[in-house]
Automatic annotation (TrEMBL):
Its main location: cytoplasm. Keywords: Acetylation, Coiled coil, Cytoplasm, Cytoskeleton, Endoplasmic reticulum, Membrane, Nucleus, Phosphoprotein, Signal-anchor, Transmembrane, Transmembrane helix. Residues 182-209 form a coiled coil. Residues 277-446 form the SUN domain. It holds the Pfam family Sad1_UNC. It comes from the Eukaryota. This is SUN domain-containing protein. Residues 1-37 have a biased composition (Low complexity).
């Protein structure tokens, strides 16, 4: 039995179920074609009872046009009209079957993921049992490993033998090279030693020649001019006259005899301005050696209690013990000269080593200084006197040379001095005393009288 809704739907005019937007604009005269379409496709007949939430449909109005009539007919037939799209709006909501299908698909995917994760967890917690051990394969693997180890051992032994051979070869070559180098070095060393010895010999020869040259007394220009003038006067020849050779020989003989007399007088042929017989005087010295307390033999050798500082300014005539002993290996002697001079050299005398009992008391390292002390009876004009003490020279007394050794003044521009001080800082070995046999001071006096004292 059909329901009243179905009957109402059958009695109501049929409308098209085409959801396209052109269906609303079709005229009402197409109702016949719509009825024919309904016979060809299944038609869902819905209950036409009003739903509480659905508002009452608006009254029909013929002025609404064919679109409204078709919409009303469709509403009366109970066919759901698709929502009309707004211009520029979003698309309509999906159908329920699509939503249900999407939810079902997502649930199926989630279930598959859960099953996969569960399977992994199961496999992780329950690992598969290890496969059975293949003893034959393991034995074959062990055999191959043993073969590889044996091969490596043989290669290592061969490599070690080769390395030992290389080491022996290198050691042999290095030893041969070391021997050749040692022989070459020894040969060069011997050659260098020979050259050094020859150089030392040449150095000694040069030193002796230099010392001899230094000891030579060269004539100053003024002395040579004076000598030449004397030669001319003695020969009695003018500037343009020829000089007779016999006259030159006679003059040379006379000069030689004069020099012989001079050297015989004092031994070195130079004036001594510190000699005691001409007015030189020892005005100060370091502590004297007390020979009387050392025994009678030493006292007799050194002159006993009669030793005087003036012995250092008197000829000793080469006799051992004719000296003035000073305490220790260092000391000084201050000498006042007979008058003011411009010093040229200092002569220090000791006893000859051929007759000396002990050469260790001879002074060694010495220093000489000089200055001028103003006196009332001396006046030198045109010359500068040294008011302050000035270092004149330093020297070393050498035992391998003559016992009388002269040392030139090395200080430049030395003024007039009348005081000389000899300081010795060491001797040749004796720690008890140092013997001074004689000190001589050489120089020349200013040519004109008058003195000018320098304060610098």
């Amino acid at each position: 039995m059909a329901s009243p809704s179905l009957a109402a739907a059958a009695a109501s005019p049929l409308t098209s179920l085409d959801p396209s937007p052109n269906a609303a604009s079709r005229p009402a005269s197409a109702s016949a074609s719509a009825a024919a379409a309904l016979r060809k496709r299944p038609v869902l007949l819905l209950d036409q009872r009003p739903h509480p939430s659905t508002p009452n449909p608006p009254p029909l109005d013929s002025s609404s046009g064919p679109n409204y009539l078709s919409a009303a007919a469709a509403a009366a037939a109970g066919v759901a009209q698709p929502p009309r799209r707004k211009k520029g709006g979003t698309s309509s909501a999906r159908p329920r079957w699509q939503t249900a299908l999407s939810v079902a698909a997502k649930n199926a995917v989630l279930l598959a993921v859960l099953l996969y994760v569960g399977d992994l967890a199961w496999r992780w917690s329950h690992p598969a049992p290890p496969p059975p051990v293949d003893h034959a394969a393991l034995a074959g693997y062990d055999a191959r490993v043993a073969d590889v180890e044996a091969s490596l051992a043989r290669a290592f032994r061969m490599l070690q033998v080769q390395l030992e051979a290389v080491d022996r070869k290198i050691d042999g070559e290095v030893g041969a090279a070391r021997g050749d180098l040692a022989a070459l070095l020894e040969e060069k060393r011997l050659e260098l030693e020979g050259q050094l010895k020859r150089l030392d010999a040449r150095t000694d020869e040069l030193n002796d020649a230099f010392i001899g040259l230094k000891g030579m007394e060269f004539v100053r220009k003024d002395e040579f001019e004076k000598f030449w003038n004397e030669v001319k006067e003695s020969l009695g020849s003018g500037s343009g006259a020829e000089v007779d050779l016999d006259q030159v020989r006679a003059l040379a003989r006379e000069i030689t005899m004069r020099e012989i007399e001079k050297h015989g007088a004092d031994g070195i042929g130079r004036a001594d301005y510190a000699v005691a017989s001409a007015g030189g005087k020892v005005v100060g010295h370091s502590e004297a050696y007390d020979a009387g307390k050392r025994g009678s033999i030493i006292s007799a050798i050194l002159g006993g209690d009669n030793a005087s500082p003036q012995k250092m300014l008197q000829p000793s005539f080469g006799e051992p013990g004719q000296c003035f002993p000073l305490q220790g290996s260092s000391g000084f002697v201050e000498i006042k000269l007979r008058n003011g001079i411009i010093p040229d050299a200092i002569t220090l005398e000791h006893v000859s080593k051929d007759v000396a009992y002990d050469m260790s008391t001879a002074p060694k390292d010495c220093r000489v200084s000089g200055w001028y002390e103003e006196t009332h009876n001396e006046a030198y004009s045109g010359h500068v006197a040294s008011a302050k003490r000035t270092a004149l020279t330093e020297f070393m007394y050498d035992l391998d040379k003559k016992n009388v050794q002269t040392f030139d003044i090395t200080a430049p521009d030395v003024g007039i001095v009348n005081m000389v001080r000899l300081d010795f800082t060491s001797n040749h070995g004796s720690s008890a005393l140092t013997c001074i046999y004689r000190i001589r001071v050489h120089g020349h006096e200013p040519l004109s009288p008058g003195v000018s004292i320098s304060q610098s």
